[in-house]
Design a protein that fits this description.
By secondary structure, the chain is mainly α. The protein has a domain at 3-105. Helix content is 53%, strand content 0%. Helix 4 crosses helix 6 (92-102) and helix 5 (68-78) runs antiparallel to helix 6 (92-102). The longest helix has 21 residues, at 39-59. The protein starts with a helix and ends in a 15-residue tail after the last helix.
């Protein structure tokens, strides 16, 4: 069955379609098929990923915030007390296995990449840091302390 048809046939396809994971859903299916997972297992894993997508959407997170730590939080804190609407996978072992195949497909920030600034205060602090670095770079003198006329 083609990946689009498989996704369309899911009972909770809207959970994936309205989440940040929608951009990697087809690659996820292709990854599982390349690893020779059965169609039944792929369907089970998609339901587990749809449930995870529903939870992530409720947290209002972007794809770049999804990582192994978030998956661990989902498995340990959400699943044991889950009351999401069915159908859903609440078995921790199945969800862990499904999400273990998902994580490598999520683009992770590269080492040394500049952190995304999200608040005006963070932007101001970084701009001030760059100003100070430029103002005092290569100077053989230290900034003069403010004299209050003493």
């Amino acid at each position: 069955m083609p990946t689009d048809q498989l996704l369309a046939s899911l009972a909770r396809v809207e959970w994936i379609a309205s989440s940040p994971l929608c951009t990697i859903a087809n690659r996820y299916i292709l990854r599982l098929r390349a690893r020779h997972y059965s169609e039944h297992t792929i369907r089970t894993y998609l339901i587990a990923c749809a449930h995870f997508s529903y939870w992530v959407t409720g947290l209002d997170l972007d794809l770049d915030h999804i990582n192994a730590e978030l998956v661990t939080r989902y498995l340990q804190q959400h699943l044991p007390v889950c009351n999401c609407p069915p159908p859903r996978i609440t078995a921790i072992a199945d969800s862990r296995a499904a999400l273990r195949q998902l994580i490598p497909l999520i683009p992770q920030p590269s080492y040394g990449a500049e952190k995304v600034v999200t608040t005006p205060i963070q932007r101001e602090l970084i701009a001030y840091h760059h100003y100070l670095a430029g103002a005092y770079s290569g100077a053989s003198w230290a900034p003069i302390p403010f004299d209050r006329g003493q």
